[in-house]
Amino acid sequence: KPHLVLRDVHRHYGQGDKVIRVLEAANLTVQSGELVALVAPSGAGKSTLLHLSGLLESPQGGEIEIIGIPTSKLGDRGRTQLRRSTVGYVYQFHHLLPEFTALENVSMPQLIAGVSPADADKRSMELLDLLGVGPRASHRPAELSGGEQQRIAIARAAANHPKVILADEPTGNLDPETSDIVFGALANLIKNEGAAALIATHNHDLARRADRVVTLKGGLVVDHIL
Ligand code: ADP
Ligand code: ADP
Fold first, then answer.
1. What mean pLDDT do residues 169-190 have?
2. Which residues form a coiled coil (predicted)?
3. Residue 23: which of 15, 11, 13 has the closest Cα?
């Protein structure tokens, strides 16, 4: 099932002779349980593609569908609602709340969404276990290694059962060995949860482990052979 579809998406910035055409007719489909790596040089439009996919930005043309729902005619509220109920986001830096434990950080978005504290903690514990950081549940971010922090951030992004998981350089901050562990944990989670994942990374070794690798060329999303 396609969870994320971009159809002839057009996005430019600026105007006149200062216009920057980032996406001209970008097409991309990411299926449930599929992990697509996005590899492209700085400035090519990776963040733009992720922001569009996460409904943070709107394209000037084309259509973006999340779980089959076309978004071009949604208003700001509709887009925000759809984003909150379907998209999970992993940043390069974890953005965990320092005064809360790992478990609390993962439970927080669930509590905000109205899940009971008991159910939230149960779900959080399952995710932390799945990602190999269960034993760290009661630690605060400052007491955790970079790789552990990032796996907690991944658990938090997955907490509300997102259909689409977007990640901007999720291992950009980690050494190669830790990157490998974190990427493996993320891939495992995607399969387990049946989410569609689009992961921007500079790391070719990690990108090779994705189901598919794409890049951006001339405003298009094209398959990339590493
Ligand atoms: P990447 O994430 O691959 O580094 P970006 O998506 O951030 O690329 O940017 C793609 C191009 O669009 C760059 O040339 C960038 O300067 C430009 N750009 C991105 N966002 C804006 C914006 N809000 N206003 C003007 N130009 C932008
Ligand atoms: P960092 O500085 O650690 O890379 P930022 O806080 O600057 O992280 O966030 C990276 C980008 O991801 C921001 O531009 C933010 O707007 C964007 N972002 C946050 N949530 C989402 C989402 N759900 N979908 C798409 N982009 C998102």
1. 93
2. none
3. 11
